[in-house]
Design a protein that fits this description.
- The structure holds three protein chains of three kinds.
- Chain B has 27 helices and 16 strands.
- Chain B is α/β, with parallel strands linked by helices.
- In chain B, the strands form four sheets. Chain B has a six-stranded parallel β-sheet with strand order 6-5-4-7-8-9, with helices on both faces. A six-stranded parallel β-sheet of chain B has the order 13-12-11-14-15-16, with helices on both faces. In chain B, strands 1-2 form a two-stranded antiparallel ribbon.
- In chain B, helix 6 packs across helix 7 and helix 11 packs across helix 16.
- The radius of gyration of chain B is 24 Å and the shape is globular.
- By secondary structure, chain C is of the alpha+beta class.
- In chain C, strands 1-8 form a two-stranded antiparallel ribbon. In chain C, strands 2-3 form a two-stranded antiparallel sheet. Chain C has a two-stranded antiparallel sheet with strand order 4-5.
- The mean pLDDT of chain C is 91.
- The chains are: A alpha/beta, B alpha/beta, C alpha+beta.
- At the A-C interface, helix 7, strand 22, strand 23, helix 8 and helix 10 of A face strand 1, strand 2, strand 3, helix 3 and helix 4 of C.
C-alpha cells in the first residue's frame, strides 16, 4: 500500500504515525512545502517572545521520518490533486502516485486586501518561517500593530509585549476573541491585556498600511493613524482548498469530510485545518481549525486507510488560551454572534476579579461554556457538551461551578449509553 | 449544593442563607459541604491518636489492620474515643457549674458584690437538703455553707456526689452495682484521661463504664450544681412570655447579642442594657433604644429568667451577624464558632470575647471579672452602643419571630399541675396512669449542618405531642420548637393529640415545656425522680413511660448528657449516631447491654418521625409493663418519614 | 499493564490517597516538610462525594488518550509498553489543552505546568495511593484482573439480591 500525505503538521504527522503503527510495511510519503523538522505551529509565539528556540518547539524528534521509515518530500508544493489518475501534481511538475491520499494541507493566513500590505515589516503569523522573520525584524523595532483580536492576533500581541514592544491591537469586532467568547469574558481579557500594557482598539479596521519601503504605521478606515514599525496580521486562516479545485472532491470553507475522515472521492481522505468536518453540537459540518481535531482526524483517516472502521468522536469547537497568565477554555457555541434559538445563557463572576464563567444551555443540554481564570475540570463539562447529554438534573451544580467528575457522575451514569469508552466502564464497574 | 430550603426548615434561616449566598459569604453549611466526604474512620470511631506509635486505624472491611500498633482493636479504640468525648462534655458542663459555685461564694463573702442571692427560698431548701443547719446563721452564712459544699463536689475524692441522693433508690442501687456511682466531678474526668492513656484500660466495657460514671458526675453533679446555684443567684424561673427568631433584631435599635452559656455574664449584660444611662447613650447615638437578645444556651438562661428574646439557635449564630444590624456579639464559652471573627470583620459587628478560657480570632477581648461584673458589663454595652453609627451594610433582618411561653422547672411543674396551694406531681402521674397522657419525652440537643436545621427537633416534637406525649425541651431544641410556634398554649390545639390537649387546656400550658439551657437537663432528671417518688409509675426512672432524644446533636456535651440520661434509666434516640459503629461490641453495649445494667439504652435513627415512633413504642412497652391501660385516645399512625418528606419536596 | 482501580464500596472518604499523593509529589516526600514547601504539593487525585458514597478519581491513562492528542507541545505521551500517559514537564508550556479535553478532570492546571498522575514514577513500590488506602478501595490490577474482580462483585451482588 502506498499512502501519500500532504502536510507535515498535526494532522499529517498523526496520520503518518498511526499508519506506521498499524502497518510496518506500507509505503508512506509526506509532502510539505515547509522545509523544516516537525514543529508545533501553536508554539511559534514563543519564538517571537524569545522564550523558546526552534528545538524547544519540535513536537516530534528530528529523526521522526527516519524512525518511522517515512519518505519525506520537504519543500515541495502540491499544486493539484488528480484523483482520476490517483496522483498529486507538484509545483516542479513532478507527479507522485498514491493508492490512498490524506490531504492535510492546512490553511493560509488571510491578508487584507489594502494598499501597502506588501510593505516590509508586515507579516502573517502561521509558520515557523513567519515567526523567525518576525523575531529577526523585531530588533530595532519599538512599536507594533496587530491586526485582528482573535487567538492568533492576541498571542502575537502578548509575545511582542513580552519582548518589550509597545503593542496596539486593532480589532474589527466590538470585542476581542469574538469568535469564541462574548462580552463578559472579552471584557475580562481586554482589561487584563490593558494591564499588561497592550493598547486595544475595537471596531477598528485598517484602510492602508503607511510607510515607504518599510512600514511606519497604519491608517484606519476612520482616518486614525497608528504608528508601528511592525505589523502582524491575524485576520483568520483560509483552508488550502485550492489543491482540490476542479476535482470531484467537494469543498466549501474546507474540504468536506465525513465521520471517517473520508472526502467525497474514494481513497481520498482529509484531516486538520483544511477540512470542514462534522460538529456534533452544531449538527452540521464546520471548519474547526483545532489541534486536537487535527490529530484525531489524522488518526481516523489513517485507521480507515488501513481498513479499520473507526469514526470521529463527538466533537465541537473548543479552545484553550493562556494570555499573560490568564486562562480561557471554551467549548461549543460560545462566540459573540452564535445566538442559538431558545438558548439560555448564565454568567457567573468571581470569586477572583478575573474569574468568569458563562454557560449556554439549550433546553436540558449544555451547548457551550466559557471559563476564564479557573479552568479546572473543563474537560468534564466538555464531554457533556460534545456528547449532547441531558444535564437537567445537574444544571444548578454546573452553574454553581461544581462540575468535577464526581459531581457530574450521576448524570454520566444515567446516560451511560453515551459514555461507552472503556475508561468510563472502569469507573462504573465498581460504583 | 443543597438549597437553603434543604438546609433548614426555619423560614428566617432560609431567608438569611439566601442573603449570605448572595453576599458570597460561606457559613457552616457551606463548610460542611466542602468537608464532604467526611472521613469514615472518624465517623466510625476507629482511628486512634492517643500515642505517637500511631496514628492507627482499623479497617472495618477486614482486609487491612485489625488492631493498632499496641494491639488495641476497633472496640478498644472506639470505647476510648467515646469516653474522651464524655470527658470533654462533662468538663464543659462542670466547669460552668464551678464558675457558678464560685460566684455564689463571692456573693456570700462580699455584700458589695454585684451578685447577690435572689432566691432565698431555693437557697433555704438547698441548705436543708445538703444538711446545712440554719440555726442562727444569716442568709449570707447559709449561702457560704451551701457554696462551699457545692464547690467541694468538684474536688471530692471519696464517697458519692451529693445530688445522686435525689435519684430514686432503685436507680442508685443500679449505679452502685455497676460501680459507676460518681465520687467527685473532676476525679471521674481525670480518671477517663488516665484510663485512655496508652496501655491502661483495655476492656471496652470497663472503659465505657468509667464514661458512664463521669457522665453521672456531670448530670447529677456539675450540671445540677450549675442549675441549682444559678437559680439561687439569679432566681428560679417562672412562667414567662418571650419571642424567638432573628426577627427579634430591631434595625432601629442598638442590637446586642449574648452568645454562649454561662448566666454570670449574661445576667449582668441584662442589667447593664436596661440601665437608664445606657439607654440614653443609645439614643444619643441615633438609636431608638437597645435590643438585647441571645443565641444558644445563654439565650435560654436569660429567656427563662427575664423573657429576653431569643435571636436563634446554634446554627444561626453566623446568620445573626449577616443581618448587618448586630452592633455587638458578646460571647463567653461553648459552641461559639471561631468563624464569627472573620465574618464580623465583613460587617461592623464588634465580636467581643469575655472569658479568659475562650479567646477567638479577630475578637476584641474584654475580660469579664465577677468581682467587677456590672462595671465591665457596662463597658461592653457601651462599646456596642458606640458601634451603632458604624453600620455599613443595608439591614437584612428576616421578618420572622414567634411568641412563646418558657420558664418551666422541676419546682414550678408542681405548681402548674397541682395549683399554687396544693403543689404536687399527683395530677401528672394520674394523667399518665389514666392514659390521657401517654408519657413524657425529653427532646434536647444541638444543631448539626449534616441534618436539615431544626427539622429533626420540630418534626419529632410534633409527632410526639400528636401522640399525647408531653414534651420537655432544653437547649437548641427549645429554640427550634419556639421558632416553630410549638411553645405557646395555642399550639396544643393545633398540634397535640386529644389527651394532651385536655391537659394543656386545664392548666393553660403549652404542649412543649421549656426547661432551660443544656446544663438544665439536670432539671429533667429531677422531674423524673419526682415522678417516681410520687408513686404509681414504678420504682425507678427505668420503669417510667418516658423516652429521650437528641435529633440534631453534635457536641461532646451532648454525649455526656446522652450517657447520664441513659444511665439514669431513659431510652434515648440519637439522630446522629455515636462514633462507635466501626466497633461491634461497643455498639452492642450502648444500644443493647446498657439496658440491663441501667434500664436505659441508645438507639440511632436519623429520621425524626421514625425516631419518635421508637420512643412511643418504648413508652407503650413501659406502660404495659406497669399494667397501665393503653392511651386514652389512639392516634392514627400516619405522618411522613423524612425520606418521604424529601421526596415530596422534590 | 497495570492500572489503579477504585472500589467505591470500600471507600470511607478518609482522603489518605489524596494526602499521600500530594506528599509523594513534593520535594521532600515527607508530610511535615511538604507542608512548608514553596511549591505547594498538589494531589493528583481527589476524593469527592457522590450521593452519600465516595468517588476518588485520578488519571485513567486512557487509550486513545484525549490529552495526548490535544497536547500541542508534544509533552504528553502515552508509553507504548506500559500504557502510562506521562507529562514531560520540561516540554509542557502550560497551554491547558489537556485540561480542556480530560473527561475526568484528572489533568489539572498547575502553577506552571500540567499536574497529573504519573503512576509514582519515582517509586519502586508502585503508586503510593494504593499503598496509602487503608481499606483496599484503591487497587492495582491488569485489565483482566479487574474484569475478574468485577465479575465476582456482580455475582456477589446478585447473590445478595436473592437472599
Amino acid at each position: 500500500m502506498k499512502v501519500v500525505i500532504i502536510g507535515n503538521h498535526a494532522a499529517g504527522l498523526s496520520a503518518a504515525e498511526t499508519l506506521r503503527k498499524l502497518d510496518s510495511a506500507c509505503q508512506i510519503t509526506v509532502i510539505s512545502n515547509e522545509k523544516v523538522p516537525p514543529y508545533s505551529r501553536c508554539l511559534i509565539p514563543y519564538l517571537v517572545s524569545g522564550e523558546k528556540t526552534v528545538e524547544d518547539i519540535l513536537f516530534k524528534p528530528v529523526s521522526f521520518y527516519e524512525d518511522n521509515r517515512i519518505d519525506a518530500m520537504l519543500g515541495c508544493e502540491v499544486v493539484r490533486v488528480l484523483p482520476k489518475e490517483k496522483q498529486v501534481l507538484l509545483d516542479s511538475g513532478e507527479r507522485v502516485a498514491y493508492e490512498a491520499l490524506i490531504v492535510a494541507a492546512g490553511g493560509t493566513c488571510s491578508m487584507p486586501n489594502i494598499p501597502g500590505i506588501e510593505k516590509q515589516g508586515v507579516f502573517g503569523f502561521r509558520t515557523l518561517a513567519d515567526a523567525e522573520r518576525i523575531a529577526e525584524y523585531c530588533d530595532g523595532v519599538d512599536t507594533a500593530v496587530v491586526l485582528g483580536g482573535g487567538l492568533v492576533g492576541l498571542k502575537a500581541a502578548v509575545a511582542l509585549n513580552e519582548r518589550g514592544k509597545q503593542v496596539t491591537v486593532a480589532v474589527g469586532s466590538p470585542n476581542v476573541l469574538s469568535q469564541i467568547v462574548a462580552e463578559p469574558e472579552a471584557q475580562v481579557f481586554e482589561e487584563h491585556l490593558t494591564r499588561l500594557g497592550i493598547e486595544i482598539f475595537t471596531r477598528t479596521n485598517p484602510a492602508k498600511v503607511l510607510g515607504d519601503e518599510k512600514v511606519s504605521g497604519i491608517e484606519t478606515t476612520e482616518g486614525r493613524k497608528i504608528e508601528a514599525q511592525l505589523v502582524i496580521v491575524g485576520k483568520g486562516v483560509r483552508a488550502n482548498t485550492q489543491l482540490v479545485k476542479g476535482t470531484d472532491i467537494q469543498a466549501e470553507h474546507g474540504i468536506l469530510i465525513d465521520e471517517h475522515s473520508r472526502t467525497s472521492v474514494p481513497d481520498v481522505y482529509a484531516a486538520g485545518d483544511v477540512t470542514q468536518s462534522p460538529d456534533t453540537v452544531r449538527g452540521e459540518t464546520w471548519t474547526n481549525a483545532l489541534w486536537p481535531h487535527a490529530i484525531e482526524e489524522g488518526r481516523v483517516a489513517a485507521e480507515n486507510v488501513m481498513g479499520r472502521d473507526t469514526v470521529l468522536g463527538g466533537r465541537t469547537s473548543m479552545n484553550s488560551l493562556v494570555l499573560g497568565g490568564l486562562s480561557l477554555i471554551t467549548s461549543g457555541l460560545t462566540g459573540a454572534r452564535e445566538k442559538l434559538e431558545g438558548a439560555e445563557e448564565i454568567t457567573r463572576k468571581g470569586p477572583g476579579k478575573t474569574d468568569c464563567k458563562r454557560f449556554i444551555f439549550q433546553g436540558n443540554r449544555l451547548v457551550g461554556f466559557a471559563l476564564v481564570g479557573k479552568v479546572d475540570n473543563a474537560g468534564v463539562l466538555g464531554s457533556l457538551v460534545k456528547k449532547r447529554v441531558d444535564v437537567a438534573q445537574a444544571k444548578e451544580r454546573i452553574v454553581a461551578g461544581e462540575y468535577d467528575f464526581a459531581s457530574m457522575f450521576p448524570v454520566i451514569r444515567d446516560n451511560r449509553e453515551k459514555f461507552k469508552e472503556p475508561e468510563y466502564q472502569e469507573v462504573f464497574g465498581f460504583f | 449544593m443543597k438549597t437553603p430550603k434543604q438546609r433548614s426548615v426555619d423560614p428566617a434561616t432560609v431567608a438569611m442563607l439566601e442573603a449570605a449566598a448572595s453576599k458570597g459569604l460561606a457559613v457552616a453549611w457551606d463548610r460542611q459541604e466542602a468537608m464532604e466526604p467526611q472521613c469514615g474512620f472518624g465517623q466510625l470511631g476507629i482511628c486512634c491518636r492517643n500515642c505517637t506509635m500511631g496514628p492507627c486505624r482499623i479497617d472495618p472491611f477486614g482486609e487491612g489492620p485489625a488492631a493498632g500498633i499496641c494491639g488495641a482493636d476497633a472496640d478498644i479504640i472506639a470505647a476510648r474515643n467515646l469516653v474522651r468525648m464524655i470527658a470533654g462534655g462533662a468538663a464543659a458542663h462542670s466547669d460552668h457549674g464551678r464558675d457558678i459555685a464560685h460566684t455564689l461564694l463571692m456573693a456570700a463573702e462580699d455584700e458589695k458584690c454585684d451578685y447577690q442571692v435572689k432566691d432565698e427560698a431555693k437557697l433555704r431548701a438547698l441548705a436543708e437538703e445538703l444538711g446545712v443547719k440554719a440555726d442562727g446563721k444569716d442568709l449570707r452564712q447559709i449561702a457560704r455553707a451551701v457554696a462551699e459544699i457545692a464547690f467541694g463536689q468538684f474536688g471530692q475524692q471519696h464517697g458519692e456526689v451529693v445530688f445522686a441522693a435525689r435519684a430514686p433508690a432503685d436507680q442508685q442501687k443500679r449505679w452502685q452495682r455497676a460501680r459507676v456511682m460518681p465520687r467527685g466531678v473532676d476525679r471521674e474526668i481525670v480518671e477517663i484521661m488516665h484510663r485512655t492513656h496508652i496501655g491502661v484500660d483495655n476492656d471496652p466495657v470497663n472503659i465505657i463504664l468509667q464514661g458512664v460514671r463521669a457522665s453521672l458526675g456531670d448530670g447529677w453533679g456539675g450540671s445540677m450544681i450549675a442549675t441549682d446555684l444559678s437559680d439561687v443567684l439569679f432566681r428560679t424561673p417562672e412562667w414567662v412570655r418571650g419571642r424567638a427568631n432573628l426577627g427579634v433584631l430591631e434595625p432601629a435599635n442598638v442590637n446586642i447579642i449574648v452568645h454562649g452559656h454561662e448566666p454570670t455574664l449574661s445576667e449582668m449584660i441584662v442589667a447593664a442594657a436596661q440601665d437608664k444611662e445606657m439607654v440614653e447613650l443609645a439614643k444619643s447615638q441615633g438609636a431608638k433604644g437597645i435590643t438585647l437578645s441571645g443565641i444558644c444556651c445563654t439565650a435560654n438562661e436569660i429567656l427563662m429568667r427575664h423573657g429576653i428574646p431569643v435571636a436563634g439557635n446554634f446554627l444561626q449564630q453566623e446568620l445573626a451577624v449577616t443581618t448587618g444590624v448586630v452592633d455587638a456579639m458578646i460571647v463567653d464559652v461553648q459552641c461559639i464558632f471561631p468563624a464569627l471573627g472573620a465574618l464580623s470583620q465583613k460587617f461592623h459587628t464588634k465580636f467581643i470575647s469575655t472569658s479568659p478560657k475562650a479567646k477567638f480570632p479577630f475578637a476584641e477581648h474584654i475580660e469579664f471579672e465577677e468581682s467587677r461584673a456590672l462595671e465591665i458589663a457596662k463597658r461592653i454595652v457601651r462599646a456596642a452602643i458606640e458601634n451603632f453609627p458604624n453600620r455599613k451594610t443595608e439591614p437584612c433582618v428576616p421578618g420572622h419571630s414567634n411568641p412563646l411561653v418558657a420558664g418551666f422547672t422541676a419546682e414550678n411543674i408542681y405548681a402548674m399541675l397541682g395549683g399554687r396551694y396544693r403543689p404536687s406531681y399527683r395530677p401528672l402521674n394520674d394523667a399518665i396512669m389514666s392514659g390521657r397522657l401517654r408519657g413524657v419525652a425529653g427532646v434536647v440537643g444541638c444543631n448539626n449542618p449534616k441534618h436539615r436545621h431544626d427539622y429533626g427537633h420540630t418534626e419529632m416534637t410534633k409527632e410526639l405531642i400528636r401522640n399525647d406525649v408531653l414534651v420537655a425541651v432544653t437547649g437548641c431544641t427549645a429554640v427550634a420548637d419556639a421558632k416553630a410556634g410549638l411553645m405557646c398554649p395555642e399550639a396544643a390545639m393545633e398540634y397535640a393529640g386529644r389527651g394532651l390537649q385536655e391537659v394543656c387546656r386545664a392548666v393553660g400550658a403549652p404542649p412543649v415545656l421549656h426547661l432551660g439551657s443544656c446544663v438544665d437537663n439536670s432539671r429533667i432528671l429531677v422531674v423524673l425522680s419526682n415522678m417516681v417518688k410520687e408513686g404509681g409509675l414504678g420504682e425507678s426512672i427505668a420503669d417510667l413511660p418516658v423516652a429521650g432524644a437528641a435529633p440534631e446533636w453534635m457536641s461532646e456535651k451532648a454525649v455526656s448528657i446522652g450517657f447520664y440520661v441513659v444511665a439514669s434509666g431513659v431510652f434515648t434516640v440519637l439522630g446522629e449516631p455515636l462514633p462507635v459503629q466501626g466497633a461491634p461490641r461497643v455498639t452492642r453495649f450502648v444500644c443493647e447491654d446498657m439496658e440491663e445494667l441501667f434500664g436505659g439504652k441508645f438507639a440511632f435513627e436519623a429520621d425524626p418521625i421514625k425516631a419518635a415512633r421508637l420512643m412511643i413504642d418504648h413508652i407503650d412497652a413501659k406502660r404495659s409493663a406497669l399494667h397501665l391501660p393503653g392511651p386514652m385516645y389512639e392516634v392514627p399512625y400516619a405522618p411522613r418519614t423524612a425520606v418521604e418528606e424529601a421526596r415530596a419536596a422534590e | 499493564m497495570k492500572k489503579v482501580y477504585f472500589d467505591s464500596r470500600k471507600c470511607l472518604g478518609c482522603h489518605s490517597c489524596e494526602f499521600a499523593c500530594a506528599v509523594e509529589h513534593s520535594e521532600s516526600k515527607e508530610a511535615a516538610k511538604a507542608l512548608l514547601e514553596e511549591d505547594r504539593p498538589l494531589p493528583r487525585r481527589r476524593v469527592r462525594p457522590v450521593e452519600g458514597a465516595c468517588l476518588t478519581i485520578g488519571c485513567r491513562h486512557c487509550d486513545p488518550a484525549p490529552c495526548v492528542e490535544a497536547c500541542m507541545a508534544g509533552a504528553m505521551t502515552k508509553d507504548a509498553d506500559t500504557g502510562e500517559v506521562i507529562c514531560d514537564t520540561d516540554k509542557c508550556v502550560g497551554c491547558w489543552m489537556c485540561v480542556m479535553v480530560c473527561p475526568f478532570g484528572a489533568v489539572r492546571p498547575g502553577e506552571v505546568f500540567t499536574i497529573k498522575c504519573d503512576m509514582c514514577a519515582d517509586r519502586e513500590a508502585g503508586p503510593v495511593c494504593v499503598e496509602a488506602c487503608p481499606t483496599g478501595a484503591l487497587f492495582e490490577a491488569t485489565a483482566d484482573e479487574f474484569a475478574q474482580r468485577r465479575k465476582a462483585r456482580e455475582a456477589a451482588k446478585q447473590a445478595e439480591l436473592k437472599t
